[in-house]
């Protein structure tokens, strides 16, 4: 829940947002004029909060306040005709990583990707699951869901409980996200009616009614996925740098690629535990954001229809084309070469495509 207050004086106009999705009680952001400055204050007991500001609510581009003077409260100067503030709780849910807001370059020219022309994209902050959804995690929510009116197209499979779930289609992933939200007493994201009163629970429905402001689980947009995969790095081919070897990810080595250090063939770790050659979630080192398997193991379903160019319908939190025939999958898999594992590489699959090389992970908004 967020509250909003507006106060006006001769110096500036302020709109204040306060609250959190994770604390049980409202945290109030207060305001008081102080000459040419403005004092913002909140309870000393409120921890893990950041103060952010913007000059435009239509295209916010929220940023952390850097011109404040720490006191028992925070004194903020302002040179704009209007300034908006919000107080965000950065307590990260268990098993997730905080992905900060900001502009990043989506796509690159490192490997002549014709459908990944570099574009500046703004993505608001969000939380992303550090690991792919494992088989045990899938089964826990699946059992709850099927006992509460959900019907899936596929039961899902995996080589072991700590390996990624696969053989689930895009529809299954959306329904599972909704069920997980309800199980955790969060607001579901996907609905079958414009009023968003009928939660998506069964059937192969091409969902168009999405509550993007809900605090429940959902698939990442393609832009969110790539921002998270890059881990704050710029101009790098992979989440960790420009070269790859089987110590970095689960994929099929091909030293014919100049940036692949090999060895050639399927990753030995995956082969040793049998077909399909997936590996345990979290087996390889994470990127800077603490995210595992952002390259290799299994492709990951994203929300977007596949299309070009990027930044549809806007370069501010784009959600992809309004329609299409295939959905975006990202990250590469255990059965593909390194050129499919780069941060810019784009792939796609049919919404009802349930195969042993596609899985998913969840994100949550604030």
Short key terms for the protein model shown above:
2 domains; single chain; alpha+beta; paralog of FGE (formylglycine-generating enzyme); disordered N terminus; 23 strands; 366 residues; globular; four-stranded antiparallel β-sheet
Please trace the helix and strand order, writing H or E for each element: EEEEEEEEEEEEEHHEEEHEEHEEEEE
Sheet of most strands: 5 strands, mixed
- Rg measurement, Å: 22 Å
Q: Report the top-level CATH class of the largest domain.
A: Alpha Beta
The spatial strand order of the largest sheet comes to 1-2-9-5-6
Structural class: alpha+beta
How many DSSP helices? 4
Q: CATH architecture of the largest domain, please?
A: Alpha-Beta Complex
Could you outline the blueprint of secondary structure elements for this entry?
Layout: E1 3-8, E2 13-18, E3 30-34, E4 37-41, E5 49-54, E6 63-64, E7 68-70, E8 74-77, E9 82-89, E10 96-99, E11 102-106, E12 119-123, E13 126-129, H1 135-146, H2 170-183, E14 190-191, E15 209-210, E16 217-218, H3 222-230, E17 252-253, E18 265-266, H4 268-272, E19 299-305, E20 327-330, E21 347-349, E22 358-359, E23 363-364
Parallel strand pairs: 2-9, 19-22
Antiparallel strand pairs: 1-2, 3-4, 4-8, 5-6, 5-9, 7-8, 10-13, 11-12, 13-23, 14-15, 16-23, 17-18, 19-20, 20-21
Describe the protein's architecture and organization.
Helix content is 11%, strand content 25%. It is α+β, with helices and mostly antiparallel strands. The chain has 2 domains: 3-91, no CATH class; 92-366, paralog of FGE (formylglycine-generating enzyme). The strands form 7 sheets. The chain has a 5-stranded mixed sheet, with no helix packed on it. Strands 3-4-8-7 form a 4-stranded antiparallel sheet, with no helix packed on it. A 4-stranded antiparallel sheet has the order 10-13-23-16. Helix 1 packs across helix 2. Residues 1-26 have low confidence and may be disordered.
